[in-house]
Amino acid sequence: MELQKFYYDNKIVKMFAYATILWGVVGMLAGVLIATQMVWPAANFNLSYLSFGRWRPVHTNAVIFAFVGNGIFTGYYYSLQRLLKTGMASNWMTRVHFWGWQSIIVLAAVSLLAGFTTGKEYAELEWPIDILIALIWVIFGWNMMWTILKRRVKHIYVAIWFYIATFVTVAVLHIVNSMEIPWALFKSYPVFAGVQDALVQWWYGHNAVAFFLTTPYLGLMYYFMPKAANRPVYSYKLSILHFWALIFLYIWAGPHHLLYQALPNWAQSLGTVFSIMLIAPSWGGMINGLLTLRGAWDRVREEPVLKFFVVAVTAYGMSTFEGPMLSLKNINAISHFTNWTVAHVHIGALGWNGFLTFGMIYWLFPRMFKTKLWSNKLANVHFWLGTLAMLFYSIPLYWAGWTEASMWKQFTPAGDLVYPNYLEIVTQIMPMYYMRLFGGSLYFIGMFLLVYNIYKTVKAGEFVPLEAAEAPALEKEGARKSGESYHRFIERRPIQFMILSIVAILIGGIIEIVPTYLIKSNIPTIATVKPYTPLELQGRDIYIKEGCYTCHSQMVRPFRSETERYGEYSKAGEYVYDHPFQWGSKRIGPDLWREGVKSGPLYKSDAWHYTHFMDPQKVNAQSIMPKYPWLAESEIDVEATPAKIRVMQYLGVPYPAGYDLKANDDLKAQAEAIAAGLKTNGIDVAASKQIIALIAYIQRLGTDVGDSKTALK
Amino acid sequence: MSNIDENKLHQAEPEIDELTKDRYLGGHEYDGIRELDNKLPRWWVYLFYATIIFAIVYLLGYHVTKWWPLQEAEYANEMSVVADLKKANPEPVVDLATMVPLTAAADLAAGEATYKKICIACHGPQGQGLVGPNFTDQYWIHGDSTTNTISIKNLYNVVITGVIEKGMIPYKDQLSPTQIQQVLSFILTMQGTTPPNPKAPQGAKYPKIG
Description:
The structure holds 2 protein chains of 2 kinds. Chain A is mainly alpha-helical. Helices cover 63% and strands 3% of the residues of chain A. In chain A, the strands form 2 sheets. Chain A has a two-stranded antiparallel sheet. In chain A, strands 2-3 form a two-stranded antiparallel sheet. In chain A, β2 and β3 form a beta hairpin. The radius of gyration of chain A is 26 Å and the shape is globular. Chain B contains 6 helices and 4 strands, in the order αββαααβααβ. Chain B is mainly alpha-helical. In chain B, a hairpin with a 2-residue loop joins β1 and β2. Helix content of chain B is 42%, strand content 7%. At the A-B interface, α2, α6, α7, α8 and α9 of A face α1, β1, β2, α2 and α3 of B.
């Protein structure tokens, strides 16, 4: 057979690798900044674009989509070409993919810091960027499928199965969860509201973990682990079974983020049981990774790359056991909204994604630069520093999580909360926040050791931009042969493989999401629930803009400890006009859903809220809430009111016809009443300021049903 | 799913890995990566089965046979225990006409706990006043100006009815009469203290409350 000559494009790999390192530094720096602000709120220097609520999404987006995202593409471009024995089908598409992805990251960072956000976790980017992401993602996937079709290897390897599943699923998740109607160039409202929005968001959010942080990295593991160890993959049969089980089951697990919340019970139960069924498929990947090292364990002691991989895969195994446990109702009742969740996700992020990326980078650079790693010793130091960092990061936060949960839930024998003042609980876990900052900083320092080591390696070596290779062309093969297994057959049918993957991932999503629209009893209507007034709507947009959801939930769960502390528990029908929902996932501060209920345990006056927003430490010396002085200076965007009302009407919110043009009159009247009230308390602030709208919104929270007498005790 | 057939196709003896003595799969080689023909680990298969059985039992038990309560019923159970607790410890009757400040340490401690839970937000940690008025001076907004006297009874009414236009809500639903008496007694112990940053006096000056 005639050998064909071709080249592997290393340049695109190098570009993505540099981007991975750069965004890794930025993402981790953002993490260190917000960890600092949690122990020292003044670290935002009272500047809106440095505040916690804006940097927290920058941190999560930078780590997930910039650091890990570029990490995926680095390993993907290196492995795909070699596994298929071909260069990429289209060079311009690889370049558009690279520059497109980097510009998305820059746009994301700038727009998030400027306060443009959808307020949906890990999907905070606004609609123009969403469209750009979809385009770039399709270009990446198109080029991949095209390259697969041009391959010189008959079957596609398990790593590529994972790449294909990643491509199709992320596309579906991103497009569905980003459906939104713009009311300005950089602002929109999502088409889903309340319970549906929560369900779609966590279907997306959980599967961003599954199909962005997990499946592509399993693909990378299946390539780099056997390569670095020079050992065969433990079991092909396990690969098949765990791959299909993983992608089919994962998509159902999203509702475990909404246990004991205002989601129909059946959807919660599906989230729980599918999470439990995920243990074995997830561990299939861990087993296949770790057992691939059989016969090479002696080299693990010597080789930093293998060490990073072993800890990465172990962290994966730990996370994928802990995750299902956290999906059990009784454990979730303790863990949810606490720092336990934060510790859990960082085992995944620092251990699995971080360490696999570091190992891959230490392995790739010497090969692309035809040299040895500059210092194995320094890489070893990085390994130990990183491992230690994970312990210092996670153990205090586990401790903090359990402390918070037990303080939230304790009652005196007489039946009162032992810790009714939320601040006491915040103060109690401050030492843990300090230790977390220490752990995070260690990890960040480790990253600099990598930067230096790679810099020295690059200096010492000579880059090979195009690596020559040769292989015979692929012979055409038709229908399944007798004796050929079905799976082996589909492995040489990439398009059918892709279609099967789409079917596997669509089933769960459709079964969970569609019924909440079709079955009325899933979200019982509450007659007293009315749309927000124009001023409250404006205030809500400020709440979203400042990222209040990063510290406060709007979801009172049906527990005595929560109804005692906050008031009546949340009902599904209360949120029908919430585009987007703002239930939150973390209570750094208290829940706010019953904040406006005058007869409830949380109510405070407008003057209190004003004073508190301006200077939380004046009200509570130990508070870690940032100050918001700019809200008393910035004007409410009244020009946008009509457009906002029209989009809401389009989405089914029952404002009367023609209300868009009258809305500002109501807005001004309500604002002036609040400003006049503040004046009697000696606070002089114009009715046109943003803080007035935010106070109006806060005082509205939970009042549609929460004011009734029965709601009290 | 087996690939033994494919090995037959190749008509070759399966190759054995020297280090683990496991069988290689013929024809499975990708950029130098080979795959072994190992069976699924038994314990892994049983684990998978166990989780599937768990899932079926869980769904049946919660949604079909109703063995276990769903969240609304769980909450109702939890609250019925609280109702029993309240029944077992009935509120003592408080007579406003004869009310005087309490002095027992236990009452003052209970009052302090309530103060820290509720009043602190607007009146400050040391009663120095913040959004709400200062408790440490001799000036009061809600005294009886006709007789120029103020007593715990006047303050009790403020707590019960609230001063809603100023942002003070009625606390009659949140606090029992005893709790109100206790917290007012605690507040009165702040009289004459000199905390830093006191709020300027509001209202009229009254003789010290006894």
